[in-house]
Design a protein that fits this description.
By secondary structure, the protein is of the alpha/beta class. It is built from 13 helices and 17 strands. Helix 2 runs parallel beside helix 13 (384-410), helix 4 (125-134) crosses helix 5 and helix 10 runs parallel beside helix 11.
């Protein structure tokens, strides 16, 4: 019979495979998600179900959603992929409209459906025989052919990626605390894959290379991800700074981006500029490059908190808007936490491209040091602004991944 491997949300089986023929779902999890999970079998001799506890991955759906999206499997991608599959399989929207399928997913109780599935299915049979009744979906009779097209729909859904199904299921708040389980023990025991092959770090191809203006930006972002977004921190890698940061300065960063575009870099790369005069000027220049879909450029987001900020210069101290003028990464930290001084920006050189002065936060190294010294999410520290930065970074990478996945599936494969 072979060894089965299954991905499930609660009792709802989302994907299955056999022996070496399966999708590797390890990227949805992290190594510390490995634990003892239930495996459902059926004893045909005794005619009764059996549950055994074995090693597998388990994590609540709500903790996996961003990982799914960072892999490129978004709601928009789900609808686009579904429409493409209908066309590929010669099916009309009326057979099973996307809205009907989506609505059925939203109403199924993933904790109450039967967890028992037949072990062997021909192509297209799994969805037709197992899932249609669980989703309470009835495929209409084709008037020309004179029969229902359950297996045609089943074949189509065999090609609908299970990560898209999980992303759709995540739109139901009731599902967010339900564990997603990938039971890999049987294929490991069967010798089809090693345990090291099943439980591994996120591969480099799924990660994003983040390139910033300087080493301080990279250190702060890396630490913020580990501290505030641990469920997705492994998706991001930064330039190795042990031997000195090679891209310091906005001018160098722009040249690096030009070089990456010219060589056709295959990695997914995010270029981040500061929200200051020099950063904004270079951001606009870099944005005009003909970048491929696996590259994106952004600047740190403008914030209302920066609209009334204390500044100092030749004309004395004033309260001014430092957005697009002086908001480097340190400004997004908690500037009041254990700081003896009131935060202040000092105006420096004049930027001709934007007709404004460039400023710098006084004592920025001290603000950065206090943040980098944090070893946990300190309740008294205000993380609100740096979290906006992280959410913006993640959103940019998700859009990059979505566009890359659409490119891949819309390009004829050899």
């Amino acid at each position: 019979m072979g060894s089965m491997i299954r991905l499930a949300l609660g009792n709802l089986e989302v994907d299955w495979g056999k022996n070496i023929n399966f999708i590797h779902h390890g990227v949805l999890f992290q190594p510390h998600d490995v634990c003892s999970v239930p495996y459902h079998y059926y004893d045909e001799d005794a005619e009764r179900p059996i549950i055994e506890m074995k090693e597998g991955y388990s994590r609540p759906l709500g903790k996996i959603v961003k990982r799914i999206e960072l892999l490129g499997y978004t709601l928009d991608h789900a609808e686009e992929a579904y429409a493409g599959l209908l066309e590929l399989h010669g099916l009309d929207q009326s057979v099973l409209p996307f809205t009907t399928f989506f609505d059925s997913l939203m109403h199924v109780d993933v904790t109450d459906v039967s967890p028992h599935y037949e072990d062997d299915h021909d192509f297209g049979e799994f969805f037709a025989r197992e899932m249609l009744r669980r989703f309470n979906i009835v495929i209409p009779r084709d008037e020309k052919l004179g029969f229902r097209r359950d297996f045609d729909v089943g074949q189509m859904m065999e090609n609908f990626h299970p990560w898209l199904t999980l992303r759709l299921l995540a739109e139901n708040p009731k599902n967010l605390n339900v564990p997603v389980v990938w039971g890999f023990a049987d294929v490991v025991e069967g010798g089809w894959i090693s345990r090291e092959g099943a439980v591994a770090e996120l591969p480099a191809a799924s990660r994003y290379l983040v390139v910033t203006e300087g080493s301080s930006d990279a250190k702060i972002l890396k630490h913020a991800l580990r501290l505030l977004r641990p469920e997705t921190a492994d998706f991001f890698r930064f330039v190795d700074m042990e031997e000195g940061y090679p891209f310091s300065g906005t001018g160098n960063l722009h040249k690096v981006c030009q070089g990456l575009v010219s060589i056709g870099v295959l990695n997914r790369v995010l270029i981040i500029y500061d929200n200051d005069a020099e950063g904004v000027a270079r951001y606009f220049s870099t944005s005009r490059l003909a970048m491929p879909h696996n590259m994106r450029v952004m600047k740190l987001p403008g914030l209302p908190d920066f609209q009334s900020f204390e500044t100092t210069g030749p004309n004395g101290r004033h309260i001014e808007d430092i957005n697009a003028r002086a908001a480097a990464i340190e400004c997004y930290l908690d500037l009041a936490w254990r700081a003896p001084e009131r935060p202040c920006v000092q105006w420096k050189n004049f930027n001709k491209e934007l007709s404004t002065y460039h400023g710098e936060l006084l004592g920025k190294e001290a603000y950065a040091r206090r943040f980098l010294d944090l070893r946990h999410r300190e309740p008294s520290y205000n993380f609100q602004n740096i979290e906006v930065v992280l959410d913006t970074v993640i959103a940019e990478c998700i859009e990059m991944a979505r566009r890359c996945e659409i490119d891949y599936f819309s390009t004829p494969q050899p």
